[in-house]
Amino acid sequence: MRKLLTTLAALALVLAMAAPAWADMPYNTAVFTIGSTSYTFNGQVKQMDVAPVIVPPGRTMLPIRYVAYGMGIPESDITYLAQSTVPGYSQDQEVDITQYIEYKGITNTTTTRILYNTSDLQDAVMAFPPNNPLNPAPISFVKEYGAAPQVIDGRLMVPLRAVVQMADGGTVSWDGNTRQVTVASPQTSH
After folding, report:
1. What pTM was estimated for this model as a whole?
2. Between the CA of residue 135 and those of 124, 160, 163, 166, 183, what are the distances in Å?
3. Mean pLDDT over residues 13-36, rounded?
């Protein structure tokens, strides 16, 4: 137990020392307005084919594609598979979102996999590449974020905060007065 506590304390110290080095990292900013098909990405107005909605218990839902665009991920780094490649999920469909972040000579590549079966979206999960020490097990949308993806107007909508936080550690903030969600996300290099 003592060894574990020592290791955790050392890790916390290293992370605290590294935090200032990442403090000036360039970020993308996307602003989505509930009910509007327009959004801004780094100040430029963009269009979606479906507007974000709020579903109980107060989760903002958006198509996977626009969540990725709001994080600065290009179309070429979003892959749809009719059958999942993740062991144990072969009956599911899969969407892979790959993000490349390069900062001060350090490159980090992260792929988040969204696994779902349209006949039972309550079981939809986010999974990560095998042997990922930070997130080894699939994460349930329902258990972790209180809302499963939903098909709305023919589009698969996912909880915005869940994907942003899992994919790149970005932040999501809500302004109830304007009904806007702001996503701040590290700039991608790909």
Report:
1. 0.77
2. 16, 19, 13, 9, 22
3. 67
Is residue 160's pLDDT more than 50?
A: yes
Give dist(CA 147, CA 140) in Å, integer: 9
**pLDDT score at 190:** 61
- Residues sharing a CB contact under 8 Å with residue 98, sequence separation 6 or more, in sequence order: 73, 77, 78, 79, 109, 110, 111, 190
Report how far residue 81's alpha carbon sits from residue 137's, in angstroms, rounded to the nearest whole number: 20
**Cα–Cα distance measured from residue 158 to residue 148, given in angstroms and rounded to the nearest whole number:** 7
**Residues composing the chain:** 190
User: How large is the average pLDDT for residues 121-141?
Assistant: 76
Residue 173 corresponds to which tokens in the numbers above? 């903030």
User: What is the band of 13 on the pLDDT scale with cuts at 50, 70, 90?
Assistant: very low
Query: Would you state the structure tokens that stand for residue 116, as one six-digit string?
Result: 């779902």
C-alpha dist (Å) from residue 115 to 26, 42, 182: 30, 29, 25
Q: What pLDDT, on the 0 to 100 scale, is given for residue 18?
A: 44
